[in-house]
Specification:
alpha/beta; about 230 residues; binds zinc ion; about 20% strand; binds D-xylitol-5-phosphate; 8-stranded parallel β-sheet
Length: about 230
């Protein structure tokens, strides 16, 4: 029954950028809850992706929430620019941020939703102190930096631990998973307690069309298409 509440956050990293507008519109038709935008700087992760101009363009063609996954060394420096471009929420990493509380408060002061992401080797316990301030937590199920990687199964017990922590400390906080989510792994993460699933290649590169791919994911989670 909890499965009905699972949200899909298509990650445009796997989209065809020459047709980005149409692909996001398709994802919206397919019932996307939000659009996940992966921001990489070639420093925090060994890859570069996109910046605020993409967000500004997307803002003109969709009312869906635009969620920024900030895989950059100093997210604080870029918050204002991304807010100006039309971002609705920010996911910032625990790793490499010595002033995470300050970053989180800055995002809240900008009136935006905030989440903290943890990498596969980072333990769940680091979330405990910051959790009451968050709208969502992201358990990375791959190492950040690239799409189309294999799901890391050892993250499943951690998802479960984070889920219990959320229940105790802030039940309304969302538990998002990101990386390697497909028809096989999505139900495993939902069973472990995830309620927002980021999916890039299994939505935009499935080869069956975006709406159909989203429907298949929902069927895998729910046993029906709703
Ligand atoms: C990885 C990104 C993910 C990525 C997921 O660093 O944070 O959001 O787009 O891609 P898939 O779903 O292909 O693993
Ligand atoms: Zn991401």
């Amino acid at each position: 029954m909890v499965n009905k509440l699972v949200k899909l956050a298509p990650s445009i990293l796997a989209a065809n950028f020459a047709h980005l507008g149409e692909q996001v519109a398709d994802a919206e038709r397919g019932g996307a809850d939000r659009i996940h935008v992966d921001i990489m700087d070639g420093h925090f992760v060994p890859n570069i992706s996109m910046g605020a101009p993409i967000v500004q363009s997307l803002r003109q063609i969709t009312d869906l929430q635009l969620e920024m996954h900030m895989m950059i060394s100093d997210p604080d420096l870029f918050l204002a620019e991304f807010v100006e471009a039309g971002s609705d929420s920010f996911l910032v990493h625990w790793e490499g941020n010595n002033n995470l509380h300050r970053t989180v408060q800055r995002i809240k002061a900008l009136g935006k939703r905030v989440g903290v992401a943890i990498n596969p080797a980072t333990r769940a316990a680091v979330l405990e102190e910051i959790l009451p301030d968050l709208d969502q937590v992201v358990v990375m199920t791959v190492n950040p930096g690239f799409g189309h990687q294999l799901f890391i199964h050892t993250t499943l017990p951690k998802i479960h631990r984070v889920s219990r922590m959320i229940e105790q400390l802030k039940p309304e906080c969302e538990l998002e998973v990101d990386g390697g989510i497909d028809e096989v792994t999505a139900p495993l993460t939902v069973a472990a307690g995830a309620n927002v699933l980021v999916a890039g290649s299994s939505i935009f590169a499935a080869g069956v069309g975006i709406c159909a791919a989203m429907q298949q994911l929902r069927i895998a989670i729910n046993g029906d298409a709703h």
